[in-house]
């Protein structure tokens, strides 16, 4: 199949998937598109939103659209690592003997919802680290390979802080995107009530298989990236580091820690898929700028001056993007 045909296949399948997701999720179009982008690219998503805005419904709908097994873990302070990964148990055999058997945990599903992940202790949170990065699980010295595709969507409640544990930087860095699910406006809220009253279950139909998703991932990797775009991306990520002399003044003043190299990798990888979803065969500056917020907002740490002046991570990233946009013009 020629590359033009592959790109057309990618665009059609991505559009079909978005159409089906919109049957279940009202509004939140940017969240839907970015979540689908991360899934295609093999990344994970950290989703922030108040209860009831459709976070769980989104993952269940993804499972229907791609016909993939879906698992959910409700993170609580008493959750143990074995509740995530699974555990080895002693079983009786038919001949009266015993044997050790590994019983897989919910992490062995293709789509995993880690609900309220910041409610679990750091020890339990760390049980997901290996799965998110290497797509493997190690229990009792034995390593198990997770099936592909594997996708983690973790949620955080922004208004509830009691009894929560801040996610360590090593874990947040393994999320390709951090997305914000905002409260719907009145028109959208009316549609949500109507949909759930008529039929509370998800309505999305299967339009893709796991094999087709992996094929789309390979197609996206072939999208060319001009050297200038790559330089621009590296320059943007480097500009978040206050220890670099060439960083802008606002970085030196407001940012305490900058983004890791994974941020640059995520920007380029996601930009390739975004370009194909928009019917283009090359990455543009606008792709990088549009993805800066979801890729960087959880990877930079504002300093005390930023808190004092009311500067959020999103504000700082937007200002950095605007500075870089003016510079390239």
Give structural attributes.
329 residues; alpha/beta; Rossmann fold; Helicase, Ruva Protein, domain 3; 5-stranded parallel beta sheet; two-stranded antiparallel sheet; 48% helix; 16% strand; globular
The CATH architecture classification of the largest domain is 3-Layer(aba) Sandwich
Give, in order, the helices and strands: HHEHEHEEEHHEEEHEHHHHEHHEHH
**CATH class term of the largest domain:** Alpha Beta
Strand line-up across the major sheet: 2-5-8-1-9
Please summarize the sheet with the most strands.
Answer: 5 strands, parallel
Span from first to last CA? 38 Å
Number of domains: 2
Percent strand: 15-25%
Low-pLDDT stretches are none
Number of alpha- plus pi-helical segments: 15
Helical percent range? 40-55%
Extended strand count: 11
Average pLDDT confidence is 85
Word description of this protein:
With 329 residues, the chain is an alpha/beta fold. The chain folds into 2 domains: 213 residues, Rossmann fold (3-Layer(aba) Sandwich), CATH 3.40.50; 106 residues, Magnesium chelatase subunit I, C-Terminal domain (Helicase, Ruva Protein, domain 3, Orthogonal Bundle). Helix content is 48%, strand content 16%. It is built from 15 helices and 11 strands. The strands form 4 sheets. The protein has a 5-stranded parallel sheet. The chain is globular and about 75 Å long.
């Amino acid at each position: 199949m020629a590359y033009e045909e592959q790109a057309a296949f990618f665009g059609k399948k991505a559009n079909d998937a978005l159409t089906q997701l919109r049957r279940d999720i009202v509004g939140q179009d940017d969240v839907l598109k970015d979540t689908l982008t991360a899934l295609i690219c093999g990344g994970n998503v950290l989703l922030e939103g108040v209860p009831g805005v459709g976070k769980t419904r989104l993952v269940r709908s993804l499972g229907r659209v791609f016909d993939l097994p879906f698992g959910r873990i409700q993170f609580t302070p008493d959750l143990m690592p074995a509740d995530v990964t699974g555990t080895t148990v002693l079983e009786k055999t038919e001949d009266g003997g015993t044997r050790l058997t590994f019983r897989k945990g919910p992490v062995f599903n293709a789509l995993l919802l880690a609900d309220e992940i910041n409610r679990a202790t750091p020890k339990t949170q760390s049980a997901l680290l290996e799965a998110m990065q290497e797509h493997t699980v190690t229990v009792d010295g034995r390593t198990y390979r997770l099936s592909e595709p594997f996708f983690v969507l973790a949620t955080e409640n922004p208004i509830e802080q009691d009894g929560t544990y801040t996610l360590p930087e090593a874990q947040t860095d393994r999320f390709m995107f951090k997305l914000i699910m905002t409260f719907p406006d009145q028109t959208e809220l009316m549609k949500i009530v109507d949909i759930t009253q008529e039929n509370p279950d998800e309505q999305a139909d299967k339009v893709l298989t796991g094999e087709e998703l992996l094929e789309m991932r390979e197609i996206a990797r072939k999208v060319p990236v001009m050297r200038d775009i790559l330089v621009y991306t590296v320059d943007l990520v480097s500009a978040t580091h206050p220890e670099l002399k060439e960083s802008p003044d606002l970085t030196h003043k407001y940012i305490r820690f900058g983004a890791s190299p994974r941020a640059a990798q995520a920007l380029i990888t996601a930009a390739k898929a975004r370009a194909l979803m928009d019917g283009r065969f090359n990455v543009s500056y606008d792709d990088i700028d549009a993805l800066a917020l979801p890729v960087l907002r959880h990877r930079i740490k504002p300093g005390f001056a930023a808190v004092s002046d009311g500067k959020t991570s999103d504000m700082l990233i937007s200002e950095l993007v605007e500075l870089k946009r003016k510079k390239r013009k």
